[in-house]
Design goal:
By secondary structure, this protein is an alpha+beta fold. The chain has a single domain, classed as Ubiquitin-like (UB roll). 29% of the residues lie in helices and 22% in strands. It contains 4 helices and 5 strands; from the N terminus they run H-H-E-H-E-H-E-E-E. Strands 2-1-5-3-4 form a 5-stranded mixed beta sheet. A hairpin with a 2-residue loop joins strand 3 and strand 4. The longest helix has 11 residues. The protein starts with 13 loop residues before the first helix and ends in a 6-residue tail after the last strand.
Length: 122
């Protein structure tokens, strides 16, 4: 392949190319993607608080993501499912199993995820 983007040149690990493609539509095709990539779907419970509860119109939401998904994958899917949840420039803060979790945190089947809205005041 011209331009040096060839997988065989050993400059880019194959996993770095394959995994993001598997995450493009994490919920709608989680089971199909799991079979395709050999990943098992994970069932997660998301809890919305305060402003997020109002915008989502519910307190909890069950979602299925492919194995290996991160908090960032989850928040992307939730923004897709609930477009009014938070503006794109707002980073959604999450806690996984009662511990604050960064966007790169890997999720596991059965995790309890709480979305914590921004707080203002003085």
């Amino acid at each position: 392949m011209a331009g040096g983007g060839d997988l065989c040149d050993n400059k880019v690990p194959a996993a770095a190319i394959l995994i993001p493609k598997a995450r493009k539509n994490v919920t709608a095709g989680a089971s199909a993607l799991g079979r395709l990539w050999g990943l098992q779907p994970m069932d997660l419970v998301v809890r919305f608080f305060a402003l997020y509860r109002e915008r989502a119109g519910r307190g909890t939401f069950s979602v299925q993501l492919p194995e290996g998904a991160t908090v960032a994958d989850l928040t992307s899917e939730l923004r897709r499912q609930f477009p009014r949840l938070a503006p794109p420039e707002v980073q959604i803060v999450a806690a996984v199993n009662a511990d604050y979790a960064g966007p790169e945190t890997l999720l596991r089947d059965g995790d309890d995820v709480c979305l914590i809205p921004p707080v203002s005041g003085g």
